[in-house]
Structure formats: C-alpha cells, structure tokens
Amino acid sequence: MPPVTKHLIIVNVIVWMATIVLKMRGIIDLDSLLGLHFWQGSDFHIHQFFTYMFMHDSSGFSTGMSHIFFNMFSLWMFGMLLERVMGAKRYLFFYITCGLGAALVQEVVWQFSWANILASINNVPTAEIENAIAVGQIDGRFLNEFYNNLITVGASGAVFGILLAFGVLFPNLPMYIMFIPIPIKAKWMVLGYGAIELFFGVTGTMDNVAHFAHLGGMLFAALILFYWKKKGVFDRYHEI
Prior knowledge:
Largest sheet: 2 strands, antiparallel
Number of helices: 10
Mean pLDDT: 86
Strand content: under 5%
Distance between the termini: 24 Å
Low-confidence stretches: none
CATH architecture: Up-down Bundle
CATH superfamily: Rhomboid-like
C-alpha cells in the first residue's frame, strides 16, 4: 500500500478509536472539539475545517464501525492507484483540499438551511421560526445551543473527491458494485453516486448524512483536476 493512503487509514482508525475510548471514560469529547461545527455557534473553531475529516461517528460501535469501514475501504480501493498516478505529495494535497472544500460547502449549506432544520425539528413552518427570531421569542442562547448541535464528522468529503478523480482518470475501468453482477464503467458509477447524493441532499433523505459535503468534495476535486489538466499535469494519461 502506498505510504500516504496507508497513513491516512491508520490516522483515521486511531482517532476514531481514541474518540470512543475517551468519550466512554468521560475524559474528553473529541467530536465537540474536532468535529466541524456551524460557524455561527460558539463551539466552532477554524481548525475544525481540517480535523473533522479525521473523525468518524462515535455514537455507537456498530454505527461508527460501518461509517469508518466504508470510508477507509473506499480510500484503500481507489486511493492506492491514484496515489501511484499523482505521486504522494500531489495526492495528499488533493485529498486534503477536497476535504476542506467539502467542509466549506457544508458551512454554506448550513447558512442557508439552518432555519429550515430548526423548523423541521419543532414541526412548524420556517416562516414561524423566522418571525419568532425577529420578535425576540427565540433568544441568542437557545440559537447558540442549536448552532452547536450542527456538526459533521468523517472523511467522506475527501473520499468522494478521490472517487471522482478515479472516475475521471480511469473512466472506462470496469467496476463491480455489491449485488450487481455486471461490471459498470467507473465514469458511470461516479455519475451515479453524484446523482444519488444530489437527490438525497435536495429531498432531505437520510438527513443525518452530509450529502452536500460529499458533493462539495466532488466539486473541489473537479476544479483541481480541471486546473491540473490545463497545466498539463496529466497529459500522459490520455483517458482524462
């Protein structure tokens, strides 16, 4: 396994295990400290744009295990080849930038949707929430507590960037998906994942998943690849 992919997986697993152990022993809640919070909440800190991508669900061992397993499995499966193609330094830059881009997109989505989220939690129209804030019926302390509960963790944004890069660099490589017995070209698999994430994000399906962060990782991956293509970085790979 190439070094960057290997060490990313090791760091993610260690941080996840440490988060669970430290939380169980009541020492510290790393999710609160290192997870990405909404920028308007008092728990938000700028370092969370970076640290959140090494965190994973620690609410329960089984749910956390599935979260980190699928992320690390995807990183292993697609990241190894990409690291060999890009080189270690360029690959690490790409991975981190996709993660940062995913975080930025998530913050933007929260900025425009937090009132809708609060309204859905209280089962009232969004206009009623906005009016209650305008007339002072909802105070700043309550809003800050709500803002601090908007948090996302996981490497998924960076991993979705890796997934898009794989589909762009190796579009015709046949891939197999569980329960589908026929091969699917990588480019169609990536487009399918993107379409599913967009549908889930717009419709609010599986609202405990940061679908727009996933799309943000893919968006920043596309921008980076486009720039590198213009600079001739991948000219020897004719499939791009």
